């Protein structure tokens, strides 16, 4: 382990309700000596940093965070309840091999505790308490002398303000004077000093209500992501010596065999050993139609077995299954912040001190320069202070991004962060690979013609070269040989010829299976054979030539059918004002046949480097999204503004490209762009709400039209509105818009 990796630390921080909370945590730990690369993720409740233990200890980091009123616990430990807050349960408990072996009965973990109702939390009790005191003071004013009600308002203010002031001064000691808690303390305390006890009590009550609503809203938004991790069952039926026993799903190891009964969720990523059943993959891919699984089929954790008993071999550990990786990617995506979010962060750091400075000038200049009443202008300055908090502005972007990421994950669309969403929303051109993307990627042999020897000899040579191939054409040739009962010829020294085919040594001679251009380069494509190849290619078929040395042995024609939804997806992109283009290494005639059937422009005969050049050849103002299989098209995916990998949960699809489409549907491409555009529209709405409300009440406060309680509504109300608006994305349907 490198020194840099050794210094990496991670904690779970609980009690953060808005973007300002995350900023407070970041500010508190950044000031500690030896702390670098601080990353605080609000929705994932994660604090990650690099720490020099010689200058600061992990305990000092935890102490700095707890001093602000948040809970903090090392990664993997039980989450800590914040002061006056509530921690949502993790949904799983850590299991080690030792604990699993020590409990042969495989007792199930305890049931999750449900979060308390809002009125059972400390914030809820504070709202009820301050509200009751405020109501009692108003009632006292009707029935008792004015002095009694005045002291009732003061008492309500002090009780509600005490926890706020404690947090404000804790942040002041941490070097953060410009926080909403400190501004609230000054504003409410100042209102008491100038004799506005009733309004001070109302402001404190409204602030408590706003904090409670923020906590509830943040919890709802966070639940959208956490619900993904609960798709995997807690227990699994482990098969041992022909008998099944319940064990924690997290204790499963690679190579073990589990039984999945009808109606059960699959507890792991693995392969079916026996049984035939339909499996509902909608929890992972969003695809509602059950997929038939037979021996050899892959299954994913969290999917639902619908019909018959399946025996499944565990192929991936719990922390590496599809659901775990999706959750990890969604959480990590929060760190890949959008350019808009980075700009808002920089702006908010200037905005709050500027408003505080303006409030100070409002309190001092009119009385000094124009002889205006001190009390009136102090009151306006206090109201202006409450408008200075940028909570709504700071959370406007991450709340929308988190909701969009969660919605995408539920619909089989993974986008790795705000920067990807912003880039996808600006897409003007979409470039598709052909094989496995626009087509099914399952070509079949349609014609086979030998020039030398028999068709069986030709297929034996071809399947020998392609034995173990990952390319769809190679797999199709091997499948045809197996169907006909022809054994592949023994081959050695096999290698790929990028963009051309493959070759190996068989019987002491080099045998090649490749595109017609390979035979053409070697002078092994006579005119008669060229004409036969052209005729098949005109029908949309792909032809490969089998060469022994430089002599053609025959050819094999294959056809790969377009996906059912490919033409519709291309039409949707055009309707959205996006220009689609097909890039393929196949021959021009086959590409033209496929392109015409789908209504898409094409460029054919491309090597991997040619695809990169084609992506980069677009005008400078164009924003190109490249769709490929995540392996052969990796250079082009990297060259595009947004690289999207097709693939049902494959490692490459999830971890190499900027985004992934899990259910292999071309129709999800326009869906992903629609979701990105909706997210950016939502962000613009949130920024307008946040800044618009602040601007309106800034002017009305300076003119004396609105006062303290309206100012606090402008702050907490905007934060709640922004969060609720962002949550609308949780019900967005990318397929329909």
What would a concise description of this structure say?
With 737 residues, the protein is an alpha+beta fold. Strands 14-26-25-24-15-22-23 form a seven-stranded mixed β-sheet, with helices on both faces. Strands 6-5-7-13-8-11 form a six-stranded antiparallel β-sheet, with no helix packed on it. The longest helix is centred in the last third of the chain and has 35 residues, at 668-702.
Give a written overview of the molecule.
With 737 residues, the protein is an alpha+beta fold. It folds into four domains: 3-102, Alpha-Beta Plaits, CATH 3.30.70; 122-223 and 334-401 and 678-731, no CATH class; 235-320, Calcium-transporting ATPase, cytoplasmic transduction domain A (Distorted Sandwich), CATH 2.70.150.10; 444-559, 3-Layer(aba) Sandwich (Calcium-transporting ATPase, cytoplasmic domain N), CATH 3.40.1110. Helix content is 49%, strand content 18%. The chain contains 26 helices and 26 strands. A seven-stranded mixed β-sheet has the order 14-26-25-24-15-22-23, sandwiched between helices. β20 and β21 form a beta hairpin. α5 (122-143) runs antiparallel to α6, α6 (146-173) runs antiparallel to α7 (180-193) and α25 (668-702) runs antiparallel to α26. The longest helix has 35 residues, at 668-702. It starts with a helix and ends in a 10-residue tail after the last helix. The model is unreliable at 84-113 (pLDDT under 50).
